[in-house]
Amino acid sequence: MNREQAERLTKDALDQLAVELEGGRSKRLTDYLETMARFPDYSFRNVLLIASQRPDATRVAGFHAWRKLRRFVKKGERGIAIIAPIVGRKDVAEDESGIRGFRVVHVFDVASTDGEPLPALAKIAGDPGEATVRLKRLVTSRGIELRYVEDLAGALGRSHGGKIEIVCGLSPAQEFEVLAHELGHEILHRRDTEEVVPPRDVRELEAEAVAYSVATGIGLEAKASSLDYIGLFQGSKELLLASLDRIQHTAAEILRDIHSQPCDVVPAEELAA
User: Fold this and answer.
1) What is the predicted pLDDT for the residue at 27?
2) For residues 259, 54, 224 and 227, what is the CA-based torsion angle, rounded to 10 degrees?
3) What was the pLDDT predicted at 54?
4) pLDDT value at 137 more than 80
5) Among residues 110, 98, 16, 17, which one has the least CA distance to residue 69?
6) Between 44-53 and 237-260, two packed helices, what is the crossing angle to 10 degrees?
7) What is the pLDDT of residues 237-269, one digit of tens each?
8) At CA 259, angle to CA 144 and CA 26, rounded to 5?
9) Averaged pLDDT for residues 35-41
10) What is the 3-state secondary structure (H, E, C) of the chain?
């Protein structure tokens, strides 16, 4: 597959997503959010490409990356085409990021390889455990005040002006998802950014999509929000893609921080806080 074909596949996937959302169906977007959670280091465009070519992919890497893990691509396996940047040299015209273009590269799902077993990834199921502690650390490291309160007039959480409030007494899974939702608001929708803030309903859907992707990414059996994600489509595929890009970047940032924190022994009082 060449670059033009990859770009066409991305456009077709986005077109189909827009058609389904406009028609009141959001399962495809939910599937994309789950794929996004599995591949937090990939842009949403590459998530579209992975999901379009191999929706059952769980872990992907390039040919040589698999060899470093002592796994080898099986003979006859077809790669998954994604778009990768071309990093320029100092004497070549390029943008400020050092990128002077893009090209198609191929990655392979772990099911397309043989070799030494990979380390098992932690599965959390219904209790986030230490992941909640790590999420709280991320909140406070950003200078955001976190408070637990008895009542929020029916809401489970609220964020405003660098403060997050969470209702006391939530289940561990619910507490994690609500905290991820409110942190998503703080990262996405703080008023001190130059970006135009989306309408309130879109802000809620973006934060909910971030929470869903983050919860799925740590292994929680997350459920799609009752809000649904249909409202993310406002008649413009460009705005939809921009919204999905924001969701992907925010969820990936949170997941990377959660996974990068050391697996130390957490005091029981911190887990219960």
Assistant:
1) 83
2) 110
3) 93
4) yes
5) 110
6) 90
7) 788 888 888 889 999 999 999 888 665 434 333
8) 80
9) 85
10) CCHHHHHHHHHHHHHHHHHHHHCCCCHHHHHHHHHHHHCCCCCHHHHHHHHHHCCCCCCEECHHHHHHCCEEECCCCCCEEEEEEEECCCCCCCCCCCEEEEEEEEEEEHHHEEECCCCCCCCCECCCCHHHHHHHHHHHHCCCEEEEECCCCCCCEEEECCEEEEECCCCHHHHHHHHHHHHHHHHHHCCCCCCCCCCHHHHHHHHHHHHHHHHHHCCECCCCCCCCCHHHCCCCHHHHHHHHHHHHHHHHHHHHHHHHCCCCCCCHHHHCC
Residue 267: C-alpha distances to residues 70, 129, 130, 142 (Å): 37, 12, 10, 22
Per-residue model confidence (pLDDT) at position 233: 72
Q: How far apart are CA 109 and CA 63, in angstroms?
A: 10
| The residue to which tokens 């009141």 are assigned | 24
**CA pseudo-torsion sign 47, 26, 239, 244:** negative
- Sorted by sequence, the CB contacts under 8 Å of residue 46 that are 6+ apart come out as 39, 82, 83
The neighbouring-strand residues paired with 190 are none
Q: Quick check: 37 and 213 in contact, CB under 8 A?
A: yes
Question: Taking the complete model, does pTM exceed 0.90, yes or no?
Answer: no
